[in-house]
Amino acid sequence: MEKKFRITVEGKQYIVAVEDLSAGSQGLYPEPGSMSVVPQPAAPVPTAPPPAAPSASAAAGPGDEVAPLGGVVQTIHVNVGQAVNEGDKLVSLEAMKMVTHVVAQRGGKVTSIAVKPGDPVDAGQVLLTIG
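and the corresponding structure tokens:
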């Protein structure tokens, strides 16, 4: 049931309509015990996801230097045929405005370079091979 009231706020009169919820209609909060719970069937249990494809690092062979993280090739510091020592800087990767240097894990001669500056790479992707 709706009722109209005249109220005065700071000297200004307003007419407002107010609905009475106490007369038989349900208010904001139901009476205790007035609600019932209907059980729902259990949600299906998801099956395990299929195994992921082998990562790029699994394809890396002996002598392959791989990206430690995803990013963009910024600079290649070596050339094919160049001799390198363990710890020499090979490639600079940029990821999230940070530069990461990939260093040689072993000494030898660079036999191939699989990327060029500006190439996006994923973690584990082969960057170059040292023979």
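(Above: one complete record from the training split.) The longest strand covers residues 2-9.
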